[in-house]
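Weekly sync, protein design subgroup
Attendees: M.S., D.O., the rotation student, P.L. (late)

Item 1: inverse folding check
M.S. brought a backbone from last month's batch and wanted to see whether the design step gives back something sensible before we order anything. D.O. pointed out we never logged the input encoding, so this time it goes straight into the notes. C-alpha cells as presented (210 positions):
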C-alpha cells in the first residue's frame, strides 16, 4: 500500500505521518516513513539545493527537473523496494506536489509534467492521498512560528518566502486535484487541533486499511 500526505506549508503533514505510522504499526502493518524531496542520501542533497532560500533565482524548469531527479532516485531506491517487500509506504509529498507547485503555482505546462512522470516513473500512483487542507494564512503563520522557535529549519525556507498569492494557488490546485480524483484523495480539515486531525485521518482510512 502506497499512501501520500499532501498540503500547504504548515499543514502538519510531518506530525500526522508519524501518528499514522504508529497507528498502522499497532495494527500489525510494517510501515516506512519517507519524504520528497529527500528520502535518500542523494535526495537529501537535492533537497538542500531546492529549499535553500539563497537559491531564490532558480529557473522553474531547473526546479522541476531537480524534483524529478529526486523522485527517480527515491522511487528506485526506496518506494519500489519497500512496496515489493510488502511494506506500507507513507510518503510526505509526492507527485501531486509537482503538479500543484511547479504546474499550477509556477505556471509550467501540466501536460509536460504528466508526460515526464509517465516516461520516467511509469506513472506510479499512490493508493490513497491524504490532503491536509487549511487556509494559507493559517498554515504560513504556523510554519513561521516553527521556524522562529527552531522546530523547523531556517535553511529550508525558499517556499515559505513565496507570496500569499502563490500559496493560495497551491491550495486551490490541491483542491482541484482532489475534486478530479475523489476515489484516491481524502480531504482533512487541518485547521483543527493535532488530535482532532489525527482521529479524522484514522477514521477516513480505517474502512480501507484494517
Ligand atoms: P516540506 O518538506 O516542508 O513539505 O517542503 C518541501 C517543499 O518542496 C514544499 O514547499 C513543497 C515543495 N515541493 C515542490 O515544489 N514540488 C515537489 O514536487 C515537491 C515534492 C515538493
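Designed sequence read out in the meeting:
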Amino acid at each position: 500500500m502506497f499512501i501520500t500526505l499532501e498540503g500547504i506549508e504548515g499543514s502538519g503533514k510531518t506530525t500526522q505521518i508519524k501518528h499514522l505510522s504508529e497507528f498502522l504499526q499497532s495494527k500489525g502493518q510494517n510501515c516506512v516513513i519517507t519524504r520528497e524531496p529527500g528520502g535518500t542520501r542523494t535526495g537529501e542533497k537535492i533537497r538542500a539545493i531546492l529549499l535553500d532560500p539563497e537559491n531564490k533565482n532558480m529557473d522553474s524548469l531547473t526546479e522541476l527537473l531537480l524534483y524529478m531527479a529526486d523522485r527517480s532516485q527515491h522511487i528506485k531506491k526506496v518506494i519500489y523496494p519497500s512496496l515489493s517487500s510488502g511494506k506500507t509506504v507513507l510518503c510526505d509529498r509526492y507527485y501531486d506536489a509537482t503538479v500543484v507547485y511547479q504546474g499550477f503555482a509556477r505556471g509550467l505546462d501540466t501536460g509536460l509534467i504528466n508526460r515526464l512522470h509517465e516516461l520516467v516513473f511509469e506513472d506510479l500512483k499512490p493508493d490513497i492521498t491524504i490532503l491536509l487542507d487549511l487556509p494559507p494564512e493559517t498554515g504560513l503563520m504556523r510554519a513561521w512560528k516553527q521556524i522562529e522557535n527552531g522546530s523547523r529549519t531556517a535553511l529550508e525556507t525558499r517556499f515559505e518566502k513565496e507570496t500569499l498569492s502563490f500559496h493560495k494557488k497551491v491550495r486551490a490546485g490541491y483542491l482541484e486535484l482532489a475534486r478530479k480524483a475523489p476515489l484516491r484523495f481524502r480531504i482533512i480539515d487541518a485547521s483543527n487541533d493535532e488530535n482532532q486531525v489525527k482521529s479524522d485521518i484514522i477514521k477516513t482510512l480505517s474502512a480501507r486499511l484494517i
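Discussion: The two ends are 12 Å apart (CA to CA). The pocket of thymidine-5'-phosphate is lined by residues 9, 35-37, 51, 67, 93, 97-98, 101-102, 159 (CB under 6 Å).
Action: P.L. to compare against the previous round before Friday.
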